[in-house]
Hints:
This protein is 30% helix and 28% strand. By secondary structure, the chain is of the alpha+beta class.
Amino acid sequence: METDVLVVGAGPTGLMLANQLVRRGVRVRIIDRHAGPARESRALGVQARTLEIYSHLGIADQAVALGKRADGAVVWAQGRRAARLPLGNIGRDISPYPYLLVLGQDDNERLLGDALRARGLAVQWNTELVGLAQDTDHVTATLRSPDGTTSKVTVPWLAGCDGARSSVRELNGIAFEGAPYQHVFFVADVQMTGSMAPDVLNVFLWRSGFHLLFPMRGTDHWRIVGILPPHLRGRDDLTFEDTIPALRQEAGAGLSFQGCNWYSTYRIHHRRAARFHDRRCFLLGDAAHIHSPVGGQGMNTGLQDAYNLAWKLALVVSGRAGTGLLQSYQDERLPVANHLLKRTDRLFSLIVSDSWLAGLVRTRVMPRIMGLALRTAAMQRVVFRTISQTGIRYRSSPLSEALAGLPEDGPRAGDRFPWLRLKFRSNGPTEDLFAQLDDTRFNLILFGQPSPSDGIPDLGDLLRIHEVPSDPANDRELARVEIPRPSFYLLRPDGHVGLAGTHLDAAAVTRYASERLQVRGAGA
Length: 524
Ligand SMILES: Cc1cc2nc3c(=O)[nH]c(=O)nc-3n(C[C@H](O)[C@H](O)[C@H](O)COP(=O)(O)OP(=O)(O)OC[C@H]3O[C@@H](n4cnc5c(N)ncnc54)[C@H](O)[C@@H]3O)c2cc1C
């Protein structure tokens, strides 16, 4: 077998997974049934956590340069300006990317595709998965070419990144539980001018619905998202022109449209796969969960699924860890999807409800709450952590273990380790901790204690040790996030805390590696 992992689907999720596997030495084949990358921009919110992951891939600077920071939002209620929300830098001290970046999915896919090609792997387009059979130690996949011919490939592992209509999910007989919403959405990429506030997200709330206007890169370039008026539903010959009267009525009579690059309508579902892992197959991204685009989480959640699975699969493929480690992918990501579905469903139902009361809440209560919510730094932090996905944690995961003695308010096992600026040498420069972390290995961070003289032999080259010396600037930074001295944090490659405690106990780390991570050779 020349391929360790067959990745089915070259959307953002599949491209991220392929990149993460290849840079960890895994032999990957990535296929897609389409002839080339999608041209529609679809998702356009890139969250801070995604940019943190991009920075390890070397594409964060390009993404930031290509996109547009959403520095703020203006909320309009029944046509009147009701609130201005500061969004720029609301995540300062939480992430090196303390904002929401507006960058279309097509640009994200291009960056991820270029990064993959630079690592020597190209997507095999025009190749569709049409059959799949699982065995104890391999999967046999049947692939179809455009001329109708089929071929079989045998691989140890297969990742279904094949979107909402996932063949991998269906061929494994995994239910996609949930339902469609009755409303139909439209999205349009347009050149337009009008009374909307420039360069910020404009949220138009009406008793009967809403419109969102996202500023895009380029002059007068906007993305409009809204709900199709009921009288237009069910028509398949719709064009953007059909939507303009309702748009003018609700978002301003003076709107003037110079062009429309893309217009699409779609019915939103909220659904989750019953399992994300079935023996040698995995489901990630839209194949595993779909929900309303409220909050701009869809694409970002798929990218994080891939980041969660990649390091585990790479350890198993290389023989460094037992297959039991892979169960934690579902243990960790399924609750994230559940939570997201519940949250987006609640918000979406309120935003689209036709009821008189919901209309009142939308136009009177929501603008006020939104305005107040971002007034204080504490609330800004809560909102940022939720939207940016930096607050996602796996505290009840089997991979999370906290030893006694750490404060409740500091980082806990399962949390994404906080972003800190630290001096790694006394009298040295202050450096970005995230830039020091090697995300292809485990990182052991030691505060107020020296590195163990023999390292942690059982983890060997899988581990990097960072010793943080005592220093007033370091102490202030640690106090800010409630990290005591002495303490140690063993970070997984994806930056989440695996094991944490006060005094480093090499035997505890070794035991953690062999029992929880199933790293081979540990605990011998
Ligand atoms: C019109 C529209 C607007 C959206 N707007 C937003 C938004 O504003 N914000 C947001 O967060 N999300 C939005 N989304 C959702 C977002 O686009 C998805 O969450 C995202 O594309 C998921 O990425 P993915 O890689 O998991 O799946 P996809 O992007 O669907 O990629 C799946 C890939 O698998 C391939 N494939 C499928 N079946 C097979 C097979 N059998 N064999 C081989 N290849 C196969 C497909 O060709 C495709 O390239 C929108 C979606 C749509 C349709």
